[in-house]
Design a protein that fits this description.
The chain has 506 residues and is an alpha+beta fold. It is 44% helix and 9% strand. It has a 4-stranded mixed sheet. Strands 1-5 form a two-stranded antiparallel ribbon. A two-stranded antiparallel sheet has the order 3-4. The protein starts with a strand and ends in an 8-residue tail after the last helix.
């Protein structure tokens, strides 16, 4: 790997484009020339993530934000476009709108892959726009794999090197750059074109973290889909010869100077050398539970503690000792009263670790729908327990959260349950069971089981098998074969649901 130092430069410096971060990102992406250069383990993991995305997208088809995004996309039909989850197989829409609909479907349940470092991300959000453009342009499965692996490489590098959340900038700012790079790799664009697209994407997808604060709305699902849509549009403009605000990262009024640490900021972004295998996708991990990633280990910890705890109505207090990030973002350290509100939205509840721990402790598990049902959140015993749960930052958990060694990095915490009689039950868990370093790391069997569970009753057993066979031979798919990456569903039921939506402009 090469460590690139990134800092703000006055306009008078005339920083050469080859020294700009956007160019270096684009060069890494466009440097993948031959499919033989792709790491076999990375290829296998990319196929796993396509299965994972399809699982959560199908499970979310009749949720309102997904239906809204789908309805908007169907206002942009074209005979040579891309497919949309939940729509008849022959229906095509413009690729940027397919990315919008499918990206929202993938993100809605907060249930696909994650990567946490200096910042955090859901790298699987790159896949919907890449797949949409691959369909529109007649790319092969090997082309798609090249784009996915490049996008993950760039996304992980940015998340490791540049922290956004400290400045309350939403993490999709890194997603836009990664998707633009993935599209450049997939389409075999030159570095210059990809560089311009990266800059446009970063410029147009920077937003605040209010989308994940307070009364969290459905925009949390739309935000990455918007970034994917914007990246497609940026690539299209760049291919037509349009330039971008430059240098987008290092400029004196650019991203680093005005959005992040200011004119004296310095960052280190590590990128692979020419010819070095692109394996960053292997550093990422998926979710077993439909909740914010920092809650994954907490849910597994609650399952264990349920077997040890006594009657929960006798609990006096529960304190979760955890990292700064978990405490501040999904814990009581956020200062958000909505995290204790039984009438809060699903989007807010899946960012409330006190709620999640209460339900998982009572139920001994987690379900992507039942655990968020309004009647579940309002259950008196749950509300009583929920109000007794708080989080505190513990420096050691914060240190482990940022440990540079992935094998030692930890995203969990320690739970201390104190009962009315003074007795205490406690335990801790560093990583989720499904994490690569966990008790039951997800492998292809895990992804397959998740797909079958989430698509049961929506996708027939025959259609499930057909989709999984396609994923197994992804690298062999020819042009025109990528429609098989959309499992066949009961489109009549989806259409009947959509017909009840309020009408918009399209």
């Amino acid at each position: 790997m090469i460590d690139h130092q990134v800092r703000v430069h006055p306009s008078a410096d005339h920083l050469p484009r080859e020294e700009q971060l956007a160019w270096k990102l684009a060069a890494v992406a466009t440097g993948i020339q031959e499919e033989e250069d792709l790491d076999p383990a990375a290829v296998e993991m990319a196929a796993n993530r396509i299965i994972d995305n399809a699982s959560v997208a199908v499970a979310s088809l009749r949720r309102r934000p997904v239906a809204v995004a789908r309805a908007q996309a169907l206002g942009h039909r074209t005979s040579s476009g891309a497919s949309v989850f939940g729509v008849a197989a022959g229906t095509r829409v413009s690729p940027e709108w397919a990315a919008w609909a499918n990206g929202t479907a993938v993100r809605e349940l907060d249930f696909h892959d994650t990567f946490l470092a200096a910042d955090y991300s859901h790298p699987g959000d790159n896949i919907p726009p890449l797949l949409a453009v691959a369909q529109r342009t007649g790319r092969s499965g090997a082309d798609l794999l090249r784009g996915i692996i490049a996008a993950y490489e760039i996304h992980v590098a940015l998340v490791k090197g540049i922290c956004l959340h400290a400045h309350r900038i939403d993490h999709v700012a890194h997603l836009g750059a990664a998707t633009a790079c993935g599209l450049g790799a997939m389409l075999r664009l030159d570095t210059e074109t990809t560089y311009q697209a990266v800059q446009q994407a970063v410029h147009t997808t920077t937003a605040t973290r209010q989308s994940r604060k307070g009364e969290i709305s459905s925009w949390k699902a739309f935000a990455p889909a918007f970034a994917g849509k914007a990246a497609i549009e940026a690539v299209d403009r760049a291919m037509r010869g349009e330039g971008s605000p430059s240098p987008i990262y290092e400029g004196e009024d650019g991203f680093l100077a005005r959005m992040l640490d200011g004119p004296d900021a310095t960052y280190t972004v590590s990128l692979p050398e020419p010819g070095e295998a692109r394996r960053a996708i292997l550093d990422t991990y998926t979710k077993e539970h439909s909740a914010e990633y920092q809650a994954q280990a907490i849910i597994d910890l609650a399952r264990t503690l349920r077997e040890k705890a006594g009657p929960l109505e006798k609990v006096r207090s529960v304190v979760l000792h955890t990292s700064h990030h978990t405490h501040q973002v999904i814990g009581s350290g956020s200062g958000d009263p909505q995290k204790y509100d039984p009438t809060a939205s699903r989007e807010t509840l899946d960012h409330s670790v006190p709620y999640i721990f209460a339900v998982a402790l009572e139920d001994g598990g987690w379900h992507h729908e039942r655990s968020y049902a309004s009647e579940r959140a309002r259950r008196p015993a749950t509300v009583e327990l929920w109000k007794k749960i708080s989080t505190v930052e513990e420096p050691e958990w914060t240190r482990r959260y940022h440990d540079p060694d992935p094998a030692r990095r930890a995203f969990g915490g320690r739970a201390v349950i104190t009962f009315e009689n003074g007795s205490v039950v406690e335990d801790q868990l560093a990583v989720a069971d499904a994490h690569p370093a966990g008790a039951r790391p997800f492998d292809r069997a895990g992804y397959t089981a998740k797909f079958r569970t989430l698509t049961e009753g929506i996708v027939t057993a025959a259609a499930q098998e057909s989709f999984l066979r396609t994923a197994d031979r992804l690298a062999e798919l020819g042009t025109g074969d990528l429609t098989t990456l959309f499992p066949a569903v009961d489109t009549n039921a989806v259409a009947a649901h959509d017909a009840r939506l309020p009408k918009g402009l399209f």
